Amino acid sequence: MGPDLVVQGDNAVVLPRLPDAAFTMVYIDPPFNTGRPQRRQELSMLRSADGDRVGFSGQRYETIKGALHTYDDAFSDYWAFLEPRLIEAWRLLTPDGTLYLHLDYREVHYAKVMLDAIFGRSSFLNEIIWAYDYGARTKRRWPTKHDNVLVYVKDPAAYHFDTAEVDREPYMAPGLVTPEKRELGKLPTDVWWHTIVSPTGREKTGYPTQKPEGLVRRMVAASSRPGDWVLDFFAGSGTLGAVAQRLGRRFVCVDENPQAIEVMARRLPTAKFLGTSEI
Ligand SMILES: C[S@@+](CC[C@H](N)C(=O)[O-])C[C@H]1O[C@@H](n2cnc3c(N)ncnc32)[C@H](O)[C@@H]1O
């Protein structure tokens, strides 16, 4: 077992160099579909015709994919970008492992179709809604104040999930429950109210897309054990690494942006920093 790692490089190049079934939990928060053409970079791997996965039959998946590609050019590029990386995520998960894919409401439904194909529909565990409340409120529609996190397990019969490790929330109507229950708090549901990273708070790194540790902590706590390896290959400011360190997990964080690496060098000083060619 080596040290915790931060790798600078395109994850399409880095991921194939990591060993099969090494990570109990993968959290990724990819850049959202920006409309700009993404580089079409294929990973050196093939979708196994049936393999171990029990997703859509190849035929049906290809039809859906073809239809989506005709319908939305920008999405076609995004799909080409995301799909091979999600296939890698599947390969890298341990048999009891879990993927958390953090997206926004514009991408999540397409990604659900893609993950159903890659992991199998029966491997879909949850869609977590992260609800927050900040910024302007449009009057032209319901202001959108949430992100979506799709949760897929590699094996629906054998995944690790431990709610005893998760922080609990205050009851909405504390007067209606016993003092013991009130004291203990309630187990979170699939809707998580959590503030964004405060611009003045301790957690702030200055990285623009930084996510709150509180969200990622729940995921790591429930879906991995102390000593397990966890992975974020769109790591940004290294939120997953920071949480993993505090919870006694081992981590690999990957990002191609030099600014992200600078932030992680400050935030994760005990990790080993490598370039793509060094792994
Ligand atoms: C939304 S941010 C992640 C933020 C992170 N969750 C945090 O809490 O700071 C997405 C990150 O993906 C990185 N990224 C985009 N494409 C990449 C690629 N092909 N390989 C590696 N990193 C990539 C970007 O540099 C960016 O830092």
From TrEMBL:
GO biological process: methylation
Domain DNA methylase N-4/N-6: 25-264
Gene3D superfamilies assigned: Vaccinia Virus protein VP39
UniProt entry keywords in alphabetical sequence: Methyltransferase, Transferase
Protein family: Belongs to the N(4)/N(6)-methyltransferase family.
SUPFAM superfamilies: S-adenosyl-L-methionine-dependent methyltransferases (SSF53335)
Pfam family, one: N6_N4_Mtase
Protein's name in the database: Methyltransferase
Name of the top EC class for this enzyme: transferase
Molecular functions (GO terms): DNA binding; N-methyltransferase activity
EC identifiers of the protein: 2.1.1.-
InterPro entries documented for this protein: DNA_methylase_N4/N6, RM_Methyltransferase, SAM-dependent_MTases_sf
